[in-house]
Amino acid sequence: MATALVATPDVIGPVRSRKRAKAPLQWGNPIVYLVALLFVGLMVGPVAFLIIAGFRSNSQIQADPAGWPDPWTLDSYLTVLQTPVFWVAFANSVIAAVVTTALVVALGLMVSFVLARYRFAGSGALYALFAAGLMFPLTVAITPLYILVRDLRLMDSLAGVILPQVAFGLPTTVIILVPFLRAIPNEIQEASEIDGCSRLGFFFRMVLPLSMPGVVTVGILAFIGSWNSYMLPLYVLNDPGASTLPLTVQQLAQGRYATDTALVLAATSLAMIPALGFFSLFERRIVGGLSGAVKG
Q1: Which terminal Cβ of the chain has fewer Cβ within 10 Å, N or C?
Q2: Phi, psi of 22 (to 5 degrees)
Q3: Other beta carbons less than 10 A from residue 141's beta carbon
Q4: What is the pLDDT of residues 158-178, one digit of tens each?
Q5: Domain boundaries, the chain
Q6: Would you tell me which CATH number, out of the four given (3.20.20.20, 1.10.3720.10, 3.90.1720.10, 3.40.50.300), belongs to the domain 83-295?
Q7: How far out from the chain centre does Cα 296 lie?
């Protein structure tokens, strides 16, 4: 018996070492990586070219449009940053994007909570109505939408941009959030009711934290969609003081800076970087939120 006890660590040791040994890394098919790198290059290449081109002068661009900055210069970026019109448009874009995101998330979360947790007459038809909203992009309804905004006297105001963006952002929000809220077990709600928690208390204390991945996802999508919006502000905003960044960049490209290619490229890069950085920062949240919506 003593011999067996002494031999036991020698026997277990190799077994544990074999369990701890990691399997060799499998790289898979190299063609898959080649195709993936090709797609990454197609996506990142134009963006990188646009940002790098802002560090060139007009003479460099005219001499070699696809060349490398030689020497690197910050003149175009500094000129854009010193232009008051750019900062006015930047502030307008921030206000429109933040307010749109807040309204889309708040309204979409409340509507999704009702559709996911309660059954009533017409709930299925209401959910189908939001789903059908995905088939009607903003470009299809731009003409009647313009007439509606004009009749409501919201022209040349950010409210005329924010309200339609909220309306067209709700279908995507509801479609993503409803599966999240349906996946919450009914036992949790029953236990909270037994403990004396009201419906609003259950909503804020349990539903909101558990659905946070989906909330973050729809918030990011709403923010980026509002930041990059061009057609709706083009129809609604005629006052330069109310223009957003996409409109201001377009006006710079067609105005007195039409011949200053380097400055237009720098302005486009600066207008694109906030949305690009925001998306890159929360990219994993978007993937996780969409995965949870599909599983739900």
Answers
A1: N
A2: -85, 145
A3: 14
A4: 999 999 999 999 999 999 888
A5: 27-73, 83-295
A6: 1.10.3720.10
A7: 21
Interacting residues of 70 by C-beta distance below 8 A, sequence separation 6+ = 60
- Reported as type and span, the H/E element at residue 268 is helix 261-281
Encode 90-107: b = buried (16+ Cβ within 10 Å), e = exposed. bebbbebbebbbebbbeb
H helices then E strands: how many in the chain? 16, 0
**What would the pLDDT profile of 36-66 be if each residue is shown by its tens digit?**
888 888 888 888 888 888 898 888 888 887 7
Q: What is the pTM of this model?
A: 0.78
Structural contact between residues 76 and 262, judged by C-beta atoms closer than 8 angstroms: yes
For residue 124, give both structure tokens: 């299925």
Give the dihedral sign, CA 139/140/143/145.
Answer: negative
The amino acid sitting at 61 is I
